[in-house]
Amino acid sequence: MNNFIQSLKPELPRRWLLFIAAMVWTFAGGILLVKGSTLFLQYLHFFWIRLIGSVIGGVLFYILLFSKISFKHTRRIVNLENDYPCAFSFFDIKSYILMTVMITSGILLRKSGLLAPEYLSVLYITMGIPLFLSAFRFYYYGIFYDEVIDLKQ
Question: What would you report as the CA-atom Rg of the chain, rounded to the nearest whole angstrom?
């Protein structure tokens, strides 16, 4: 029975996990940037202040938090013991829980109306920028996988 279950597990080389992670982060960041941009264009008052604040906030989030998170995931993927891990192991369980909480919080915040759409656009852009920037780390290490020996512990 255990062999049957193992045969159903979608296995991929570690290098491809980096590309999957990159695509997931690109997709999530892209969705937030598109939603935020759409809302930005609907509410033009204080446009430049909101835009500059979003960009500064997004870059700071990337530098202070997301760059460390994406590096941690990259390192974990490169150091996985199995050469062909499960295709879903581009995140650890804690990250799946965090992703679920963030998506649920975003949906609840938008549906509840607690935050006006013009300020919600700032939040979307601010969170989309670091996600999108972090994806480039995964792309980089996926492309130059053979040279990432420096990530080996």
Answer: 18
Cα separation, 34 vs 40, whole angstroms: 10
CA-closest candidate to residue 30, choices 101, 142, 136: 136
Alpha-carbon gap, residue 43 to 88, rounded angstroms = 39
Neighbours of 15 (CB within 10 A): 16
Q: What is the pTM of this model?
A: 0.83
Residue 151 has pLDDT above 70, yes or no: no
Q: Sign of torsion, CA 120 123 129 134?
A: negative
What are the Cα distances from residue 47, in Å, to 41, 120, 123? 8, 13, 14
- Say what the pLDDT of residue 41 is: 86
Indicate whether 117 pLDDT > 90.
no
How far apart CA 127 and CA 64 sit, in angstroms, is 13
- Per the CB < 8 A criterion, the answer to whether 33 and 142 are in contact is no
Q: How crowded is residue 31: how many other Cβ atoms within 10 Å of its Cβ?
A: 15
**What pLDDT does 147 receive?**
72
Total number of residues shown for the chain: 153
